[in-house]
From TrEMBL:
Domain of life of the native organism: Bacteria
Taxonomic lineage from the root: Bacteria, Bacillati, Bacillota, Bacilli, Lactobacillales
This protein's name: RDD family protein
Coiled-coil segments on the chain, per record: none
Transmembrane helix as UniProt keyword: yes
Main localization, broad class: membrane
Keyword Cytoplasm recorded: no
Subcellular location(s) of the protein: Membrane
Transmembrane segments: 12-34, 40-58
């Protein structure tokens, strides 16, 4: 049960990082750029590009080690369950994080409470372990 709590709090940390980046970008950076870029749609697309890029750049060093910032804080690691592919690439971790964060938790995260692999783990052939 403690392991599931660590996973959940690690997810909250990663989610909070995304919310913080959204707040900083749309609350401070884009209003500052309003005199330069007057088109609202262009500023919105630029803002989402900045948020996505910053989030990926902040997470990238952790993803190289099979973690995210939240998982690194709790010393959790993503490993492969595939017998052919033993190493986890950054692309697989990124796909896993996108699937886990953007898809509905009813289909992906609820099986974790029953002790089964979540949908994001099944799709990427990965699981999380304590290191």
């Amino acid at each position: 049960m403690i392991f599931l709590m660590k996973r959940a709090i690690a997810q909250v940390i990663d989610f909070f990082l995304g919310i913080l980046l959204l707040f900083l970008t749309f609350g401070f950076l884009l209003p500052w750029m309003q005199p330069v870029i007057s088109n609202n749609w262009l500023r919105t697309i630029l803002g989402m590009t900045i948020v996505s890029s910053l989030y990926f750049l902040l997470q990238y060093p952790f993803m190289q080690n099979g973690q995210t910032i939240g998982k690194g804080f709790y010393r959790l690691k993503i490993i492969s369950t595939d017998e052919i592919r033993k190493d986890i690439s950054v692309a697989v971790i990124f796909q896993r994080e996108i699937l886990c964060k953007l898809m509905s938790c009813y289909f992906i995260c609820l099986p974790l409470l029953a002790g089964k692999a979540g949908g994001h783990e099944e799709a990427t052939h990965t699981k999380v372990i304590q290191i």
